[in-house]
Write a structure and sequence with these properties.
single chain, alpha+beta, Glutaredoxin, Glutathione S-transferase Yfyf (Class Pi), Chain A, domain 2, 9% strand, binds glutathione
Length: 202
């Protein structure tokens, strides 16, 4: 049994979008939980099994799976015919895993450091910076149109996320800008945005 813990307009919206893209909604039970919001509203939800009270969390037969990249890998492995990931064990799958882990391990940290105005030689040595990250995106999209080439995948879904949320952070590069817009326009994302907005209004 699969249960997804989601809070509207948060990082778990990416997983809700994945579920829509993969057309696997019938296979999951979605539970809406609260999280603390920057405006002071919300709060940790005792119903959320995430060890830090965050979202997303996926519970599979009683085991809690956290981190978007891990949840994406798990769901695309459980439902390999959904078209959102390459076939496991192929070179393309290796590249796919690389984008997901690069997102969690490099892109999101460098964007947070940049936003917070933090620089340090250790940070630079470990992660480089947002400019270097943007150069990697550009190199992939120049072959594109998607990160893995011809086909949209869950890598595009995850990696474009912070740019959709913080439009001012999108690198000034038409290739990246157009890719972000194409990701944002996907019907699955539009559907989740509308459902999230309705939940927030309620
Ligand atoms: N590294 C986690 C980050 C999850 C995360 O930070 N989620 C935020 C929502 S945008 C959250 O739940 N925050 C609530 C809190 O900080 O208590 C992932 O990628 O899944």
């Amino acid at each position: 049994m699969l249960t997804l813990f989601h809070s509207p307009e948060s990082r778990s919206s990416a997983i809700m979008t994945l579920v829509e893209e993969m057309r696997i909604a019938d296979w999951l039970d979605v539970r809406i939980v609260t999280i603390p919001r920057v405006d002071g509203s919300g709060g940790r939800d005792p119903a959320n099994p995430h060890p830090e009270g965050k979202v997303p969390a996926l519970v599979h037969d009683g085991l809690v799976i956290t981190e978007r990249a891990a949840i994406i890998l798990h769901l695309t492995t459980l439902f390999p015919d959904s078209g959102l990931s390459p076939k496991i064990g192929t070179a393309e799958w290796g590249a796919f895993v690389g984008w997901l882990t690069w997102y969690q391990g490099v892109l999101e940290p460098v964007m947070i450091f940049e936003g917070a105005g933090i620089t340090h030689p250790w940070i630079e040595a470990t992660f480089r910076d947002h400019k270097a990250a943007a150069a990697r995106l550009r190199a992939a999209l120049a072959k594109g149109p998607w990160l893995l080439g011809e086909h949209y995948s869950a890598a595009d879904l995850l990696v474009h996320g912070p740019y959709a949320f913080f439009p001012d952070a999108v690198p000034d590069d038409p290739l990246i800008r157009d890719w972000v817009e194409r990701c944002k326009a996907r019907p699955a994302r539009q559907k989740v945005l509308a459902a999230d907005a309705a939940r927030m209004a309620a």
